[in-house]
């Protein structure tokens, strides 16, 4: 089942009695770098909360290498899956203590002291994420981006097989965004860590992920490679935004250009022509789109 | 990473200070007994001075130790669970409930019976009912909703104190005096069994909460993150809440309402130790006992031979110490900050 490391089988979950997510099925292979995209309020974070056990799954099942999650103990699950949330908690704890908490699932519940190995691992991942020189500082003294790096160091210290990241680049500039994603990419390749990441920036999603899942209104709109998912038709249908989709000349991955209101007024025909050529080149996208609607 | 050594040194320092305040407290009082004579008095084992030491001063110190440590520990646990620095043992309405129970007992004339057990029992019943209500209402629906529990505690506190004021407004002047005296709190407890109960409770409370110290540390990152780290948060929050409540309930019923220990001492310890609960629980326990024994010395000496209510001293001293420590730590942060 190496092909199906994380498998969601038509799950429904949500807050209260209503479902925010309905019949989601997806699978992520071992060692994949998958991205979840979709408009605000489409259910991306709800999906994460379902997978990570914060929200109860009301229908369907989630399996991790073939084992249903509901049959796993919380600690067992925490040894396989680590979660980095969008806003890490800025506590008074030092960075080092914060990162060391990642070893909790590996320790006996009543064992209060870190082992030498725990400390070695914490040090290793603090170095890898570049926060080692902050280790004596309080978490609350770090910037948002540094806190996110510390949260990733903590997650890595859990030594998981699957890493869930909720918008790891949300409050970073382009340099730090790329540093962060390069780091995650290298973890994905070198540690064979399976990554599932929520990301808003479509271009970064296209550039870094090998698999994209586009969520709209609590359902999966479409999923596949970036080139399959990030077409102007899909973007227009889901985000209700006019864009032009092109290809990055170096990586061959799609790039999305937004079309502003003024340009839309003055260049309507150009955009129509552009869309026509793209549709002509990639007819399969159109048919794909139609069958979804 | 010489952290464990650092921590051991901190706790050893606290133990030394504790020994100093205990000695000072033994030597303080109306009868002038110098410290140098104490070994001799204890060795002979008789006489008025021996009686004063073992029957009056020691029980009081032990009670101050038990109540100070238990309130401070309870405050540390609750501030940790609720992740709110303004929470203290009395925020959840436990003191209000206990005071209402005592007021009811005094108005009903129960304090004239039962060998001095009646008021502590009434206080504990009031506290227990409050804990039960906060627990039931807070734990209902979807695990342990922390904000909800806090709000319910505050509301119950209001209901209890208003009901108590109602009782106070309709009762006799004598009963009124009894109620007010009880509310002010006192370490003057003639019943040694109750002192034993309080001491054992505080030690069991420390041991019990220490079993959940990993959970308490993980909860500092929020319930969701703690869940991601493999912690059963609902269970942990419930157990810790019950431990903290029982600690407070026993203290309130034995010594009345002694404010501020449970709010200020945990804060001061957090600022000094950095907030790792493995150290915090022990250092708050010791810090609370040091603080209350020291305050008791002042309460007995300032207007000697009369005695000030202990709550007056804890409030004034605690408040100033707290502001000084807070100010100092802010200055340090500015120096060390980025």
How is this structure best described in words?
The complex is a heterodimer of chains A (293) and B (338). Chain A is of the alpha/beta class and 293 residues long. Chain A folds into 2 domains: 2-90 and 156-224, P-loop containing nucleotide triphosphate hydrolases (Rossmann fold), CATH 3.40.50.300; 226-293, no CATH class. Chain A contains 12 helices and 12 strands. In chain A, the strands form 3 sheets. Chain A has a 6-stranded mixed sheet, with helices on both faces. Chain A has a 4-stranded antiparallel sheet with strand order 2-1-4-5. In chain A, helix 4 (116-128) packs across helix 5 (144-157) and helix 11 (268-281) crosses helix 12. Chain A starts with 5 loop residues before the first strand and ends with a helix. The model of chain A is unreliable at 282-293 (pLDDT under 50). Chain B is mainly α. Chain B has a domain at 70-259: ABC transporter involved in vitamin B12 uptake, BtuC (Orthogonal Bundle). In chain B, helix 5 runs antiparallel to helix 6 (146-170), helix 5 packs antiparallel against helix 11 (233-255) and helix 12 packs parallel to helix 14 (310-336). The relative contact order of chain B is 0.16. Classes of the chains: A alpha/beta (293), B mainly alpha (338). The A-B interface holds A 49, 52-54, 73-79, 81-83, 85, 88-89, 91-94, 96-98, 101-102, 104-105, 107, 109-113, 119, 138, 141, 158 and B 1, 4, 210-211, 213-214, 217-218, 220-222, 224-225, 227-232, 270, 274-276, 278, 333, 337-338.
């Amino acid at each position: 089942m190496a092909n199906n490391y994380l498998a969601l089988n038509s799950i429904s979950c949500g807050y209260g009695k209503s479902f925010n997510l309905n019949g989601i099925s997806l699978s992520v292979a071992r060692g994949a770098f998958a991205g979840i995209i979709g408009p605000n309020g489409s259910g991306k974070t709800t999906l994460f909360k379902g997978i990570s056990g914060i929200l109860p799954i009301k229908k369907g099942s989630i399996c991790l290498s073939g084992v249903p999650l509901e049959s796993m103990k919380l600690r067992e699950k925490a040894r396989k899956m680590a979660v980095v949330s969008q806003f890490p908690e800025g506590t008074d704890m030092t960075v080092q203590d914060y990162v060391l908490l990642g070893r909790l699932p590996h320790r006996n519940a009543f064992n209060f002291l870190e082992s030498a190995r725990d400390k070695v691992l914490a040090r290793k991942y603090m170095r890898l994420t570049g926060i080692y020189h902050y280790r004596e500082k309080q978490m609350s003294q770090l910037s948002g981006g540094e806190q996110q790096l510390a949260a990733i160091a903590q997650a890595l210290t859990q030594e998981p097989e699957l890493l869930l990241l909720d918008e790891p680049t949300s409050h970073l500039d382009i340099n730090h965004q790329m540093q962060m994603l390069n780091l995650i990419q290298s973890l994905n390749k070198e540690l064979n860590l399976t990554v599932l990441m929520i990301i808003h920036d479509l271009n970064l999603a296209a550039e870094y992920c090998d698999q994209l899942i586009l969520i709209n209104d609590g359902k999966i709109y479409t999923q596949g490679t970036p080139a399959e998912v990030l077409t102007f038709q899909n973007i227009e249908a889901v985000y209700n935004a006019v864009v032009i989709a092109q290809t990055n000349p170096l990586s061959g991955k799609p790039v999305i250009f937004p079309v502003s209101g003024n340009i839309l007024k003055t260049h309507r025909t150009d955009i129509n022509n552009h869309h026509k050529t793209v549709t002509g080149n990639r007819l399969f996208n159109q048919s794909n789109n139609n069958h979804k609607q | 990473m010489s952290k464990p050594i650092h921590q051991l040194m901190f706790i050893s320092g606290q133990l030394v200070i504790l020994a100093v305040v205990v000695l000072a407290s033994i030597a303080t009082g109306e009868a002038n007994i110098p410290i140098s004579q104490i070994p001799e008095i204890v060795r002979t084992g008789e006489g008025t001075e021996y009686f004063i030491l073992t029957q009056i001063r020691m029980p009081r110190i032990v009670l101050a130790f038990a109540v100070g440590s238990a309130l401070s520990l309870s405050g540390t646990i609750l501030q940790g669970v609720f992740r709110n620095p303004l929470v203290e043992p009395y925020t959840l309405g436990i003191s209000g409930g206990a005071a209402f129970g005592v007021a009811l007992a005094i108005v009903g004339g129960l304090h004239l019976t039962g060998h001095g057990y009646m008021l502590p029992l009434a206080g504990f019943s009031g506290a227990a009912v409050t804990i039960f209500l906060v627990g039931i209402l807070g734990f209902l629906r979807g695990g342990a909703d922390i904000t909800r529990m806090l709000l319910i505690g505050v509301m119950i506190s209001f209901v209890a104190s208003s009901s108590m004021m109602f009782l106070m407004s309709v009762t006799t002047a004598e009963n009124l005096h009894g109620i007010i005296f009880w509310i002010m709190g006192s370490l003057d407890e003639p019943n040694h069994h109750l002192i034993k109960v309080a001491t054992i409770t505080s030690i069991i409370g420390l041991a019990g909460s220490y079993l959940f110290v990993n959970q308490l540390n993980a909860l500092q990152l929020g319930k969701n993150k703690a869940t991601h780290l493999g912690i059963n948060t609902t269970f942990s929050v419930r157990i810790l809440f019950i431990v903290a409540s029982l600690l407070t309930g026993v203290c309130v019923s034995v010594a009345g309402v002694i404010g501020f220990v449970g709010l200020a001492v945990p804060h001061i310890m957090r600022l000094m130790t950095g907030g790792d609960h493995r150290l915090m629980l022990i250092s708050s326990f010791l810090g609370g006992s040091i603080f209350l024994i020291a305050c008791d010395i002042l309460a007995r000496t300032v207007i000697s031979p009369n005695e000030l209510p202990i709550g007056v001293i804890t409030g004034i001293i605690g408040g100033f110490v707290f502001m000084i420590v807070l100010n100092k730590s802010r200055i340090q942060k500015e120096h060390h900050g980025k």
